Amino acid sequence: MTSSLEHQLILRELKCPVCMGYMTPPITQCSTGHNVCSSCRPRLDHCPTCRNQLQWIRNLSLENLAAAINYPCVNKMVGCSESFTLHTIKDHEGQCPYRNHTCPYRKISKEDCFWAGPLPELKTHVQEMHNSPGDHVELDGPFKTVLRNISETSSFRQTIFTLNEIFYIIWEVRDDIFYCVSFHIGPKKNSSKFKYRFRVSKRRGGESISYSLKTSSFMDDVEEIIKGGDCVAIHYRSVEKFIKNGVLPFEIYIFPNDVTNSVEKRREM
Ligand SMILES: [Zn+2]
Ligand SMILES: [Zn+2]
Ligand SMILES: [Zn+2]
Ligand SMILES: [Zn+2]
């Protein structure tokens, strides 16, 4: 372990003098001992520090240091305060909330929105640009709603602001199956911290179908989620029993998953 000051000093040594990015193995040095990163090295015919044209050699001790310390996320300047080892930083940077993410209306629902930005700015974007009736809703507790004009080819989507988080829910009927997926929009590791309960029921204690599932991450591919069965999937004939005059009433409840992490599916008829 290193102190914060030592850590800063090591990071300073790991900055490439050409591109100013952090060097990662293989790190090469000139015969005098000046380092350059492996991306810049092939474009150089002399050392950028001392102009020496002699042989480049590996700097193994600096490579060992590089493998042992945490690097700050590439999005540090725009707000990410996390740091990671060389082995884990690429995974994080691919999902970092502060990198530019595609709008979920485009990523998941293939709509014509070309916004891309950091997740902390997504709420404002949705409020300003996706504000037709049914586009988004702000909630506290269970959410009772209806799907209108439901048919064997319908699809619907909605952003839900609740629990100080953003969720994006899709419903669709495809190949005779009614699907519902609730996506958590945020760091991937946080999606399992929430669950959603989906419930359709007939009035006055009649039949009901209910599911309770972990929310999916919006970083994941919707087709993989559906293929993997990690969502509500009910035969359309079963859902049809609950449709009255083209309207399907149902309830969605998103809540923190404090109790258990296991996926729990329940079907009551
Ligand atoms: Zn470089
Ligand atoms: Zn040199
Ligand atoms: Zn980050
Ligand atoms: Zn958008």
TrEMBL record:
Catalytic reaction list: S-ubiquitinyl-[E2 ubiquitin-conjugating enzyme]-L-cysteine + [acceptor protein]-L-lysine = [E2 ubiquitin-conjugating enzyme]-L-cysteine + N(6)-ubiquitinyl-[acceptor protein]-L-lysine
Protein's GO biological process: proteasome-mediated ubiquitin-dependent protein catabolic process; protein ubiquitination
Domain called RING-type: residue spans: 16-51
Alphabetic keyword roster: Metal-binding, Transferase, Ubl conjugation pathway, Zinc, Zinc-finger
One Gene Ontology molecular-function label: ubiquitin protein ligase activity
InterPro entries hit by this protein: 7-in-absentia-prot_TRAF-dom, SINA-like_animal, Sina-like_RING, TRAF-like, Znf_RING, Znf_RING/FYVE/PHD, Znf_SIAH
Domain SIAH-type: 68-131
The protein's enzyme class: transferase
Protein EC: 2.3.2.27
UniProt KW Lipid biosynthesis keyword: no
GO terms under cellular component: cytoplasm
PANTHER family: E3 UBIQUITIN-PROTEIN LIGASE SIAH2 (PTHR45877), E3 UBIQUITIN-PROTEIN LIGASE SINA-RELATED (PTHR45877:SF2)
Written domain comment of the UniProt record: The SBD domain (substrate-binding domain) mediates the interaction with substrate proteins. It is related to the TRAF family. The RING-type zinc finger domain is essential for ubiquitin ligase activity.
Role of this protein: E3 ubiquitin-protein ligase that mediates ubiquitination and subsequent proteasomal degradation of target proteins. E3 ubiquitin ligases accept ubiquitin from an E2 ubiquitin-conjugating enzyme in the form of a thioester and then directly transfers the ubiquitin to targeted substrates.
Homology family: Belongs to the SINA (Seven in absentia) family.
Protein name according to UniProt: E3 ubiquitin-protein ligase
Organism for this UniProt entry: Cryptotermes secundus
